[in-house]
Amino acid sequence: MTDVFFMERDPYAPIRHCYPVSKVLYHGKSPYQEIMVVESPHFGKVLILDGVAQCDERFEFIYHEFMAHVPLYAHPNPQDVLIIGGGDGGVLREVLKHPEVKRAVLVDIDKEVIEVSKKFLPTMACSFDDPRAIVINEDGYKYIQDYEGEFDVIIVDSTDPVGFAHVLTTEEFFKYVYRALKEDGIYVGQTESIHYHVEIVRRVQKALRKVFPIVDLYTAVIPGYAGYWWTMSIASKKYPVREPSREVTVSTKLYSADMHRYAFLPESFYQRILNGDYSF
Ligand code: AG3
To answer: What class of enzyme is it (predicted)?
Structure first.
């Protein structure tokens, strides 16, 4: 074991994760953020943006599978998919496992995250050369404003809602998402943990409810994110989301039809979170 550690700077969590580091593989600064890739004995390579661990080789599959397959299987025929953020390529890899997908547009503001991921995280950034992948380096908040009725599924794989990522959790943004979706489209975004970030979860859920007729919350346990019990907010124009709408055939490590159902919170707990009477 090494004596060198990386201490995470999670903007909202009341604790700090500390990763043993055997090697710093990359450390740089893009116009948008500080980018780091370290090798940690238990986790493998870890991508760190502005001091916050985004994904690690060991457990990234959990987050990426649930971000991609819950909306894609709730939808009966997802052909056009938009990913905002997700420059490490993990969500893109999962999205492109669906043969129905004809086009996956990935809009990440920071080109350097994609470059660094291609170089150091090849198991995640392995699908950028797929002919169905289109990569655009632009601000997702601006990009989405140009589209109407274009996408079946929109996935927002953003950093925590601070700085340039904050607008991606506002009602104004969700109105653009609604417009950019086809008339039966589905949105998903990562919305932090239940116990350390419940106010953020509630705020985003309320904003989504102002815009979409069907809004729900599902969760996955992510060992690398402080708070662990991580939430994903989903909103749909037409299809119910708690069940897969077609047979699950893609190969995964954790996602499956019964895990899809299990990921959604029981109604009573969900209502407590929404109403603000889950306090501790
Ligand atoms: N994006 C969301 C990471 C949020 C982590 N936040 C935290 N630990 N406070 C992950 C990018 C993976 N593609």
So the answer is: transferase
